Amino acid sequence: MGEVPRHTRLDAGPAGATALDALVAALPRPALLGVAGAPGAGTSTFAAALAAAYGGVVVPLDGFHLADVELDRRGLRERKGAPETFDVDGYAALLARVRQRRQLVMAPTFQRDLEQPLAGALPVPPGAPLVVTEGNYLLLDAPGWREARALLDAVWHVRVDDALRVRRLVARHEEFGKAPAAARAWVERVDAPNAALVEAASGRADLVLDLTDWAPPAPR
Questions:
Q1: 79 Cβ partners below 8 Å, 6+ apart?
Q2: Longest pairwise C-alpha distance within the chain
Q3: Which strands, in side-by-side order, build the sheet including 207-210?
Q4: How crowded is the C-beta side of 61, counted as CA atoms within 13 Å?
Q5: Of residues 32 and 117, more confidently modeled
Q6: Minimal CA–CA distance to 39: which of 75, 1, 7, 85?
């Protein structure tokens, strides 16, 4: 393992915005930045805010979820969201294309209402100054994930207060169709082990950001 990552707490309002400006300014240009974090930590919200504030594009790892039909074939439907339920080699291949910046790359996204990936939905132009890719497992020290990590200029690991994170997860599962009891059971049975795995890998991050008090800034 390399150096211990820096830890920063981002506040809401002007102070947090100023701190974030400095962090982004320290990245190379153009930059391919990874944002990792446990389920419910806010990686998607944070990545979207970065892209909006700094003229970037978001490429979500969730676009590389295996479709339910394939999860059923592999007997993994009840593990959906775990590392083995992603096409990590496809993800690394797309990052390699994005990093070359030779042409427009069409990336997949994830349809939350369908709970399925959607191919060719996100244009990533070669001139984008910042491409943010976000997902839980960007720091895993495992085949496929290591190759993907090597393509990124930096990876930031985000976290929030754990009680807040769990409340968000339960609410998300309820929003997309699970009954309250089923939502809580899924968080305990599936999301909790995944979160522990993600946090165990956080020492490989270039920066650890506490977003408990952070809020997305108003559009500039």
A1: 71, 85, 190
A2: 50
A3: 6-9, 207-210, 154-159, 31-37, 130-135, 57-60
A4: 30
A5: 32
A6: 85
**Domains contained in the chain, CATH given:** 6-210 (3.40.50.300)
pTM flag (> 0.85): yes
Task: Give the number of other CB atoms < 10 A from CB of residue 101.
Answer: 15
Residue 217: Cβ-neighbour burial (10 angstroms; 0-12, 13-18, 19+): middle
Quote the DSSP letter at residue 191.
Answer: I
In Å, how far are 43, 69, 133, 188 from 35, measured between CA atoms?
Answer: 6, 28, 6, 24
Would you give the distance in Å from CA 176 to the centre of its chain?
Answer: 19
Instruction: Report angle CA 118, 102, 21 to the nearest 5 degrees.
Output: 80
Pairing of strands 105-111, 116-124: antiparallel
- CA 162/CA 141 separation, integer angstroms: 23
Dist CA 43 CA 198 (whole Å) = 12
Please give the DSSP secondary-structure letter assigned to residue 190: I
Report the distance separating Cα 73 and Cα 121, nearest Å: 25
- Give tens-digit pLDDT for 24-38: 999 999 999 999 999
Q: φ, ψ for residue 197 (rounded to 5)?
A: -65, -45
